[in-house]
Amino acid sequence: MSISLLVFRELDIFFSFTWRDLSASMIAGSIFAVGAMRGLPVPTMIKNYLFLISWLIPHIYFFNLSNQITGVAEDKIDKPDRPIPQENASWKSIAPHTAKSTAWIYTISVWVGITSQIQDLRDIEGDASIGRKTMPLVFGDWEARMIISFVFIPTSLYILHLGHILEIAPWTLIIPHIVIAYRVLYMGGVRYDHKTYMYYTYIFCLILAVTSFEGVDFKALAQSLPTMNIPQFKSSL
After folding, report:
1. Which residues have C-beta within 8 Å of that of residue 151, sequence separation ≥ 6?
2. Rounded Cα–Cα distance for residues 215 and 14 (Å)
3. What secondary structure letter does DSSP report for 132?
4. From CA 100, how far away is CA 208, in angstroms rounded?
């Protein structure tokens, strides 16, 4: 199968997974963003909108994959047109059905479990008001930051090493982890901690991208773009 057909097949699978939620995610987000950017120069609007789309697509894809993986039996009755009930895609459709892809899924899940406490640093006041026992409230703000930066983040990198993800792009993954460890230690206030959390979500997307595109020949893909046969793409919409 040519690269162009592979690209269109992936687009077809993407829309098959997500088309029911586009109005509540990408379309709604686009409308809100365009309204919020009124008055900005057109080039700035285009740049900001492209950034929004690049952020929304992996998130809505990941959300739908996670949701539909656990609801196959229900979808066979209520939504039989979805890719998994139709057996057009498996729960591992984002990667080859191999032992390596399975290991990556578990590795990323452990990585998220270890590092997700970063989000609690921005919510200390709100969590305290409702009696929630998060790490900063149990151990103290500074102590929690020390644990996250010097224990959890190095451990999460070691987990990526054990899962053979770190070896794909070592410095591309190591440097962002060093940066976020520094940001966690730098107590810059709630707004700063929120930006740190957003940076953490970008690292998550980076890890997904590194594993999803491992082995892709982008040079060959770019050379094939002018010869793509658009009619061969069968949309699921």
Report:
1. none
2. 20
3. -
4. 14
